[in-house]
Amino acid sequence: MKVQWNGVYPALTTKFTADDQLDLDLFAHNLEAQLSGGVEGIILGGTLGESSVLEVDEKERLVKFAIEQVAGRVPVVLNIAEGSTREALKQAELGEKWGADGLMILPPMRYKSDHRETVTYFKTVANSTSLPMMIYNNPVDYKILVTLDMFEELTECDNIQAIKESTRDVSNVTRLINRFGDRYKILCGVDTLAMEELCLGAHGWVAGLVCAFPAETVAVYKLVKAGRLEEARQLYRWFLPLLELDIHPKLVQYIKLAEAEVGIGSEQVRPPRLPLIGAERERVLGTIREGLANRPELPELDAVAAH
């Protein structure tokens, strides 16, 4: 299925059972909630998906299961976050073999590559696959900034089509558009900056709290794109305390707690992560429950254009 890189793309959490196996039944339940909410693609094996602790056979099962469940309704994108070019090439090959529709790729993990190394890494992987790719630009968490000059060199690769913009600098959306026009699709990758970046021209939102609140996330996107900014502002103001759960080192635990609280997930994480306990859990749960207590009625969106 062709990836358009528009709209809301949830970075899905990976569901686990109490004995640390993939919980595909619960994954399917959450996936249906996302599709019912109006998302336009899904991303597997990202940071929220606990990619660093997933085994290759588990990624294969997730991708193939998701493709079967989605049944062509939206594209399925697989994340690549590897320390070596060799392993990234292998993951790209496997993703294509398993039937993924696209790839999201981070710069090399653990080693802080320079300009030439970063560009060479992305080009090498892009040239190895026919799948469309989105580059995940997150220097805050992963220490490598993909600069405008790097993106200039990467225009040579037709299948590098999109950017997950997570620099935390909303001005970068405008810089990218000024420099590249419509060459790249831009998707906001930071929940707390999503409305701002969509107003500046971002095409989509790679979202985190969507895992627990799909309808509200899609509503913010659609309202902004329809120019219904006051309605979007009111919804976003309600949403912001919840969205802030996405910008904490324990975002996986926080968002999984939210999923559990709304009935479309569980708190099970894979060690070394551990479920929240004590005062921290109560604090996060308080934020979630306050949001649920004041959950707004969503405006009519059937007639709102998606893009």
From TrEMBL:
Q: Which residues does UniProt mark as catalytic?
A: 136 (proton donor/acceptor), 164 (schiff-base intermediate with substrate)
* Entry protein name: Dihydrodipicolinate synthase family protein
Taxonomy, superkingdom: Bacteria
Give GO MF terms, alphabetically.
4-hydroxy-tetrahydrodipicolinate synthase activity
The keyword Zinc-finger is assigned to this record: no
| Keywords, ordered alphabetically | Lyase
Q: Which SUPFAM superfamilies match?
A: Aldolase
User: What family is this?
Assistant: Belongs to the DapA family.
Q: Which SMART domains match?
A: DHDPS (SM01130)
Q: Does the keyword Chloroplast apply?
A: no
In which residues is pyruvate bound? 206
Q: Which organism is it from?
A: Flavilitoribacter nigricans (strain ATCC 23147 / DSM 23189 / NBRC 102662 / NCIMB 1420 / SS-2) (Lewinella nigricans)
